[in-house]
Amino acid sequence: MFSGSLVAIVTPMRADGALDLPAWSRLIDFHLQNGTSGIVVGGTTGESATLTDGELKELAERACEQAARRIPIVVGAGTSSTAATVERVRWLSELPVDALLLVTPAYNRPTQEGLYRHFAAAARATRVPLIPYNVPSRTAVDMLPETVARLSQLREIVAVKEAVAQVGRIRELKGVCRQGFDILSGDDATARESVLAGAGGVISVTANVAPRAMSEMIAAAARGERDKAAQLDAALSGLHHALFLEANPIPVKWALSRMGLIERGIRLPLTELSEGYHAAVASALREGGAPRI
Hints:
Elements: E1 4-8, H1 21-32, E2 38-41, H2 53-67, E3 73-76, H3 82-92, E4 99-103, H4 112-125, E5 130-134, H5 136-139, H6 145-151, E6 159-162, H7 167-176, E7 182-185, H8 188-196, E8 201-204, H9 211-222, H10 226-242, H11 250-258, H12 278-287
Parallel strand pairs: 1-2, 1-8, 2-3, 3-4, 4-5, 5-6, 6-7, 7-8
Helix pairs in contact: 1-2, 3-4, 4-6, 6-7, 8-9, 8-10, 9-10, 10-12, 11-12
């Protein structure tokens, strides 16, 4: 159901932190024209922690209207409170979105049983498919494959975004989850090997700046073309690294501003990319297939 190169899209902002809706439209068009398989709105890269419900709703509605069902629109709905997540799932799933992405609760460090019950509660509230998102480097909790396997038995939960950067984790998930359950890599640097190991695709930061190159690399890996995928990924490897020199989305927003697609607006507590990293990110853009705008 969900496969290929989906972009974890940034949220464009002006210098004062206000949403830049004309830039939002430009970004959506950029991905529609450059092979992106789906758009994830209001995720980590979209500064989800700083978006109001009203802003998230507006971004989602505008993305759905502009995409017009040509590619899936997935919207971030997760919070660290089960009750708040359930409420958000209820109203977001009334929009014409294709799925909701739910990150594991951060900071409160639930048990595996708590994780299962959290996502099961969201599943009971939704009208659209759900995609749990495991990113222990940010949340301080690792949702283990056996928990994902349990969740895969719920019909509302159709995929998982797995950001543990170990190909063995992808193989383990493939072995324990129900047939037809989608696995999406959440780590650009290992996405090629993850797809070769059985993942259906990636939710990508790199795709923000090099959507065509990222899409072609993932497609080659999905066809089992190891050498071609490796060649394409080699050109992207600098971006995979440079876009995480500081906390995501700091580098990628700077890169997109350099490409002329957005202004440099970012919300505190995040700040603009440190000057010492400008040359490295600019070099990675040149080498990584980022189109000239």
